[in-house]
TrEMBL record:
GO biological process assignments: intracellular iron ion homeostasis; iron ion transport
Keywords in alphabetical order: Iron, Iron storage, Metal-binding, Oxidoreductase
SUBUNIT field: Homooligomer of 24 subunits, arranged as 12 dimers, that are packed together to form an approximately spherical molecule with a central cavity, in which large amounts of iron can be deposited.
InterPro entries noted in UniProt: Bacterioferritin, Ferritin, Ferritin-like, Ferritin-like_diiron, Ferritin-like_SF, Ferritin_DPS_dom, Ferritin_prok
Transmembrane segments: none
Protein name, UniProt field: Ferritin
Gene Ontology cellular-component annotations: cytosol
Length: 160
């Protein structure tokens, strides 16, 4: 069943947000590479690819519902970091933004009577809980090691 225009627009906004999140993760990977934290950079690249996969799932959902996917404007990520913990704090902020957006989309679907989108959105919400928890754990570990180079490198190796 085709989505109404309001829902189509909301799903397209989510697609754009997922692609913007991918762009932020990719820029964070570049920044971490500059700090010679190649394991963390690799982790960020994997997250970037995952965000693209999320966008693809939303695009496929619109296509399956006979709607038109449209990618909106994606701003250049303005990301400059001086530490690993800073990079992961930025990542957590973006994960929270994505979670908030998916919750709002889920609520809108309920308000518009679109029960068919629930499974997709519920799966994403469950995944977002895990994503936020993972990033919070990494931040916690980085805070424990503080400025200890060997500790930072150990976390870096674990994320490779």
């Amino acid at each position: 069943m085709k989505l109404n225009d309001t829902l189509e627009q909301a799903f397209n906004e989510q697609i754009t947000l997922e692609l913007a999140a991918s762009s932020v993760y990719r820029q964070l990977a570049i920044e971490l590479d500059l700090l010679d934290l190649t394991g963390m950079a690799s982790w960020m690249r994997r997250q970037s690819a995952e965000e693209i996969e999320h966008a693809e799932k939303f695009i496929a959902h619109l296509d399956a519902r006979d709607n038109q996917a449209q990618i909106g404007v994606i701003d250049k990520p303005e990301v400059k970091i001086t530490s690993a913990v800073e990079a992961f704090e930025i990542a957590l902020e973006h994960e929270r933004e994505v979670s908030k957006s998916i919750r709002a989309l889920r609520k809108l679907c309920d308000e518009e009577g679109d029960v068919d989108s629930r499974p997709l959105l519920d799966d994403f919400l469950t995944e977002q809980i895990s994503e936020e928890d993972t990033v919070r754990t990494i931040i916690g570990r980085l805070r424990i090691v503080g400025n200890d180079g060997s500790g930072i490198l150990r976390v870096d190796d674990e994320l490779a």
